Amino acid sequence: MSNSQESSVGAEWCLEHSYSELPTLFHQKAMPVAVKDPRLVVFNHRFAERLGLAMDPPVKVFAGNELPAGARPIAQAYAGHQFGHFTTLGDGRAILLGEQLAPDGRRWDIQLKGAGRTAFSRGGDGRAALGPMLREYIISEAMHGLGIPTTRSLAVVATGEDVRRQDILPGAVLTRVASSHIRVGTFEWAAANRDQSALRALADYTIRRHFPALATLENPYQFLLGAVVGRQAALVAQWQCVGFIHGVMNTDNMAISGETIDYGPCAFMDGYDPATVFSSIDHRGRYAYGNQPRIAQWNLARLAEALLPLLHEDEEKAIEVGTLQIESFGDLFEREWLGRMRAKLGLFAEEAGDRALIEALLEWMRESRADFTHTFRELSRSETARILLESQQDWQQQWHARLGRQEQSLAEAEALMLASNPACIPRNYRVEEALAAASDMGDLSVMEELLEVLGNPYDVRWDDSEYRLPPAPGAGVYQTFCGT
Ligand code: AMP
Ligand code: MG
Q1: Residues 164 and 196 in one domain
Q2: Residues 291-319: pLDDT tens digits?
Q3: Ligand 1, closest atom to CA 78?
Q4: How far is the CA of 91 from the centre of ligand 1 (A)?
Q5: Which of 79, 199, 210, 343 is the most exposed place for a label (fewest CB within 10 A)?
Q6: Are 68 and 238 in contact (CB under 8 A)?
Q7: Cα separation of the two ends of the chain
């Protein structure tokens, strides 16, 4: 590892290290381990510009072979509940180079995922395989395109080294960018260490970084909890409305910022069924589509428990305060979800019967295994909606009556629907196709074209394109794998 100015010619690295000022409980020094033969696979020029990093991509930096100017690499410590069981973790293969201050004043963690072993690697090799890193790149950028808060992907570099998994696979490093990597599990780590001053330092830091308006309040911690509950309710409602299944909603994979994080076994649902699970290890369906809101609330309850000592000096009162915030999740989620589902049906304002109208549609979709994305997009256009709803005359009449009762025109309703129902999502078979072309044949054009589509998923340009198509009937059941 060397600190080189060369690689950063034209680059405007502006790295700060506020996280490193937290107590040492939360981080350890960690040096990226240089790789044999780094080769840039993909670079997010548009996002780089936003970060103030418009430049010839410094491949050695994104490989971990060279540090950018001002880097002070660390691995973050955290704990977490994995499939319901508490465990201590930490970044076993991700190294934070620092926080890039963008020209607009925003602060972004720059993290190399797959950059080598750290103090938290346990038995792992600290590395990542090319396929899963490209998959994270595609899906995280697709989430961004859909308007859903998410960590971003800046670059993927192939390492020229093999990684051993089930098979031997080509290795890669992903540069992940996030508004922070503070997790529910970071708070659980402080609580598990029974270190109240560290816990307070983390909470104060989180408030300064993500919720500065709370800083002046008398007891800001219950409002911190409430704010995180609000962001997660909004986030998971957005997932539900595009059929996104995270797949591994462990508390260490839940970001306090409200960004979607950790794209391991995630996937988008095709045919509508709340029981849908893609992850090969989720035997009991804990993280099934329909369970996501409940699991988010369960995770937030773990956050509340970790925060208890800060909520009130009297434990009983602290539990009361925490419970109140956790219970607010239900209403917050319902409001977000209903609001977005209304928009998906072209409805601007509230009416009492809306929930029943939405549920009747979903029930029909479930019975007929209708494709979630395709159905809503077809509803967005009057000519295709009529055909789709041929067999659902009653529902269609109710919906039309409902649309007729609002002051907005049908054209306005249709515009709202087109902006709320994506034409394209990262369909599993499409993503697989792009990854196969990239890894087996070294052909990146399939992925690049897919990224272009997914960057503007609501665009009517795609309505008549093959990118909209659900998988062919009879296509095999899709499965995702952990241990990436
Ligand atoms: P994840 O399932 O991606 O959330 O990872 C859970 C934990 O396992 C995290 O602490 C990761 O850093 C760690 N981990 C995953 N893969 C590896 C690896 N290849 N080497 C070391 N640690 C890993
Ligand atoms: Mg994780």
Answers
A1: no
A2: 999 999 999 999 999 999 999 999 999 99
A3: 10
A4: 7
A5: 343
A6: no
A7: 25
What's the gap in Å between 150 CA and the centre of ligand 1? Answer: 19
pLDDT tens readout for residues 5-58: 444 434 599 999 999 999 999 999 999 999 999 999 999 999 999 999 998 999
Q: Which domain holds residue 135?
A: 15-180
* Burial degree of 412 (CB within 10 A; 0-12, 13-18, 19+): middle
Closest CA to 76 of 114, 133, 19: 19
Q: Which atom of ligand 1 lies at the shortest distance from residue 125's CA?
A: 20
User: pTM for this structure?
Assistant: 0.96
83 and 173 belong to one structural domain: yes
Shared domain check, 335 and 294:
yes
Domain count, the chain: 2
In one-letter notation, the amino acid at residue 396 is Q
Q: How confident is the model over 238-271, as pLDDT tens digits?
A: 999 999 999 999 999 999 999 999 999 999 999 9
- Do 138 and 281 lie in one domain? The reply is no
Question: Residue 430 corresponds to which tokens in the numbers above?
Answer: 């499409």
Distance (Å) from CA 341 to ligand 2 centroid: 30
Q: Point out the domain boundary residue: 326, 342, 358.
A: 342
**Quick one: 211 and 175 in the same domain?**
no
Among the candidates 152, 180, 208, a domain finishes at 180
Ligand 1 lined by 88 (C-beta under 6 Å): no
Q: Quick check: CB of 93 below 6 Å from ligand 1? A: yes
Residues 88 and 55 in one domain: yes
Q: Both 78 and 43 in a single domain?
A: yes
